[in-house]
Amino acid sequence: MGYKVVVAGATGNVGREMLNILAERQFPVDEIVALASRKSLGSECSFGEKTLKTKDLDTFDFTGWDIALFAIGSDATKKYAPLAAKAGCIVIDNSSLYRYDPDVPLVVPEVNPEAVEGYAKKNIIANPNCSTAQMVVALKPLHDRAKIKRVVVSTYQSVSGSGKDAMDELWNQTKGMYVPGQEVEPSVYPKQIAFNVIPHIDAFMDSGDTKEEWKMVAETKKIVDPAIKVTATCVRVPVFVGHSESINIEFEDFLDEDEARDILREAPGVMVVDKREDGGYVTPVEAAGDFATFVSRIRQDVTIENGLNIWCVSDNLRKGAALNAVQIAETLGNRVLKKG
User: Fold this and answer.
1) 243 labelled catalytic
2) Which among 45, 89, 143, 243 is annotated as catalytic?
3) Crossing angle of helices 323-332/13-24, nearest 10°?
4) What is the model's pTM?
């Protein structure tokens, strides 16, 4: 016996990935429905060998459905998630709406799988921000060994994190650079993204940080340990898929780089590719389409007493969003619902 599963926002980048990953990982589905807004009503989505026609999110009755994977943004989630939860359907939400709610667990299954058991307060589980998800997968096994005091992270985030329009903007601006008269002005981003980098993701806050940077701080504390100090600089780069992060870690206890490498090799969800030679590391091109969080460039930071530097890369549409949501559903099934 399997589950009755809803994918809301099925026509977007993340929603389509959710359907792909549910099929790839053979999640025990008895029945599945793809939901979209009315403007996308009747669009077709692939689920393994099947083709699903989208149904109207606005009129859908969640009664009798087990799990809903939401990829519809905070505004729509605010309206529809409580309706689904009230109908008895457990919502796994990819938006930022519930991440900081103390009554909603924020889960990365390789890091805090036990947290799913707190879903019952609101019948909702939150999926973390894409940049946080991959980072904490790499941090947690090291934290368990040597206790992390402080993290300094700089991110290099792909345009797919901003959605299809952003991917189109990068593509069209790139083409326009070579065709006189076809230059494309920025519309998704405040500045040109083609052949450029933009140190600005999400809105600016009074502190001078952007909301994306604040998210990495708050979510790392909620998922891993509230005592960890985090400072982040988040940068948008002209890459279609895959986020990269340069992470500097300060520990309470000394951790040798070779031991750290061994720990990460054994860590769930992590793939270590770390050869000190040309090409002996992973870039977003290699990570795209993969489930793993890749770690490279593991080395001692000799400028502080107990420091390491690492390079971390992952497919943001997968581990940063859709894959993590499906893994939450799997964890929920294994630990709580126990069907299939």
Assistant:
1) yes
2) 243
3) 50
4) 0.94
